[in-house]
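During the no-cost extension, the postdoctoral fellow (Dr. R.K.) reprocessed legacy sequence entries with the updated structure-token encoder. One reprocessed record is reproduced below for audit purposes.
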Amino acid sequence: MAKLLMISTNLMDDPYPVYPLGANIVASAVRSSGHDVRLVDLMVDGENGLNAETAEFQPDYIAFSMRNVDNVNFNQPQSFIFQYKVLIEKVKESFRVPIILGGSAYTIFPAEFLDYLGADYGIIGPGEKSLPELIDRLEQKDPPQNRIIYGEIDLSGENGYYLAREDRLADFYLNKGGMLNIHTKRGCPHHCLYCSYPVLEGREYIFRQPEAVVDEIAYLINKHSANFIFFTDSVFNDSENKYLLIMEEMARRGISIPWTCYLRPARFHEAEIELMKRTGLHGVEWGSDCSTDRTLEGMGKNFSWDEVRQAHNLFAQHGIAGSHFIIFGGPGETEATVREGVANLAGLDDSVVFGGMGVRIFPNTGICELAKRTGMIQNESELFNREVYYHSPEVDLDWLNNYLLESFRVKRNWIFPWAGVAERNSFLHNSGFRGPLWDLLLKRNRK
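Re-encoded structure tokens follow.
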């Protein structure tokens, strides 16, 4: 039996701290394979807790779960790459054991991170099957020839992996983030220009069983006293409406708990909304990203602004508020579309709007190919050494920044730039409020 120390490295709490679900799943899978595992979360334990745990545990292997490359905010950029470097160098000073990298940040830049951080192995994508196999091979003195390993999803014991939440971590995130998170599926078949989710999870949906998802909801309520759930799928609703099977199972069991999710604008029916509301739907974070037909098309969206407006306002009529994170300055943006987009947003009922500028370019995305075609970058390796944002050549950045500052200043429920929400959320969560809290802006505005 080997000893694995799994380290969740994420310290980003804007807009709110998030339970390290990926690291938790992989740690649970390794433990299920017969190895001794300790999970350290830097958000909760800090470096002092890491040092104490490492010294006491004396691991044979150390795995780092890396969630973010940077904060994806042009107005207030913050890279985490050097933070990873410092952390791993400190660990390597004390331990001569194999270092294994994983997580979404690693998957985006696998070769670059492996080289820059001086790690031994890296797992691209899911690790719940590949990490136990890697440890077994290393224990048998049969190391793989390739240091970069492509992960595989293991659904054979999914609830064993998902349900093994650690009490101290669950308590922390319920208090500091106001909710616990659940994945109902992986993958994304859509082709949004900026998005790296298909790179991270694949282009086909892989669904969990609705019963297993609702088992997890019941577990979080009964075991951890969860009183708010966030479905963290990149898109909660799918074209086959399989997501509604989860709602039907919740209704069948009489489970209702406040929850929220990311919804893609679509043609919704009244009965669907009522079912979601009956199971506790509290608010929607809409995957609109742009606010005009031209910029939606430029970003690779296959819906119109009219569909966004209709879906949002239909939910609002049922008492379900919505938020929109709008990226201004992307492909197809002009000064005219900026003005049109701001006017369109003003036509949404009960909405909170978070505004940002420019599209962060990541490898293997449509926006990366566009940037190469237009000469903005020469190759993808540039994107690791510096944060590069796509900005429409038809819009002056100073004008855009000033226009958005003026337009958003007059709306109490509009925020630009969107960063810095974490401090306000932390105060409100500590005061007993639960959930994403942007809906409190709407309540204040109504008053």
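The chain is about 45% helix and 15% strand. The chain has a mean pLDDT of 91. The remaining legacy entries will be reprocessed before the final report is submitted.
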